[in-house]
């Protein structure tokens, strides 16, 4: 037996000749059978060729689909990598923004604390200056009053009263005149 497959074409079947014997088959039946077998074999060959064409087309489509699938898988992997990289970059940027905001907030708080300390020191300085000014003014007013009292004691009174006192009739006019000529802030200091 050979490994070569037996190949039979419709033409081979139709042209096949058989020897005749005395007791052979009916020639018309054999010819009819040969034609029918040849037709069937021809139909099968055509069907096989059509199926081979379909298989070829299907294989091409399958190759195209596999190529598309590979391209889509590559695109999906690339999209996932891009998404991961974008997420990581966004997280890094968010952390950087938070760090910068925290640093800026710390700078602003430090600046505000320094400003508060400066203003408190300035307020304390102004309060000290105010108290020193009031003390100096009080001292000046008291000195002036003492000098006025000493001056009044040293000069005789034109109203005939004892030195150091003002005559009762002139006292309201002098007091009114003193109030009119004195600034209000001196009056408030003297009254304190």
Written account of the structure:
This protein is an all-alpha fold. The protein has one domain. Helix content is 80%, strand content 0%. It has four helices and no strands. About 5% of the residues have low confidence.
Keywords:
192 residues, rod-shaped, mainly alpha
Number of helices: 4
Q: SS-based structural class? A: mainly alpha
How many domains, in number, for the residues? 1
How many runs of DSSP E, i.e. beta strands? 0
What's the order of the H and E elements? HHHH
Helix content: over 70%
Enumerate the spans where pLDDT stays under 50 for 5 or more consecutive residues: 162-171
Beginning-to-end CA distance, first to last residue: 144 Å
Q: Could you describe the largest sheet, including whether it forms a barrel?
A: none
User: Which value, in Å, is the CA radius of gyration?
Assistant: 65 Å
Please tell me what the overall shape is: rod-shaped
Topology:
Blueprint lengths: L9 H6 L11 H128 L16 H11 L2 H8 L1
TL;DR?
With 192 residues, the chain is an all-alpha fold.
